[in-house]
Amino acid sequence: MSPQTTRILVINPNTSVKITESFEPILSSFSAPNTTISYWTCPTGPSIIKTQAHMYESTAHCIPLILNMVDNFDGFLAACYADHPLVRLLQSYVGSKPVVGIFDASIIAALQLVDPKSRFGIITTGVPYEVLLSEGVKRFLGGNAKLLAKFSSVAASGIGMDDLYQRSENIARDKIMAATIRLIRTTDTDVLVMGGVILAGMEGWVHEACELELGEEQGRKVMVVDQLLAGMVMLDALLRHKTADVDFSRALR
């Protein structure tokens, strides 16, 4: 008898198909036997999520549509880098089926990987996300002072949708490297998290910036967490082993 196939739905809660398409090259590298990954883009609602209001609006659009598909999947990956209400609300509807948000998973991964004497930081897109993600980290960690001490800050790169659509590689590289250098120069950080779905695949520039700023040997010690892979590692563990106690080294890029 052949093993049962595990079915995962990757959810993009905004309406940008271009963003959803950028997930596939990343997640295709994730090795999980007898697993199929499907991708879904919300057909209505915000085209990109920039505010807390956008999160609630996109949740209202997503939930009724996803609930019609719940029986077709075993687990769900919410691919929006924020403390998105969709994650908690969908969890309340689907019962025992795991729902993982890439934001949550990346923070758990960073806390597991961070050195005892250093901290983790987040590289993000626009300046508004610096406050949005910082507040999201605080909420997710429940005000735990010991855990919050492991979080340094969020650095905005200024990368926007134009960089994704126009593939302005040199400009995007410069933006990512500048944000990385600003973060590691001002904080004692040895784990960096990619904090924005349009940054998928840009981890190499973060490594380049770390080696430029810290020197080749020290720069290579900085770990870069892929938000999408962190989510998939956690979801795969919940589906197969019913635990989130996992090795997040598979989420490093």
TrEMBL record:
Q: Which GO terms describe its molecular function?
A: amino-acid racemase activity
Superkingdom is Eukaryota
**Mind telling me which residue stretches traverse the membrane in this protein?**
none
| One matching Pfam family | Asp_Glu_race
Q: Which Gene3D superfamilies match?
A: 3.40.50.12500
Q: Could you say which protein family the record assigns here?
A: Belongs to the HyuE racemase family.
Protein name in UniProt: DCG1-like protein
- Protein source organism: Melanomma pulvis-pyrius CBS 109.77
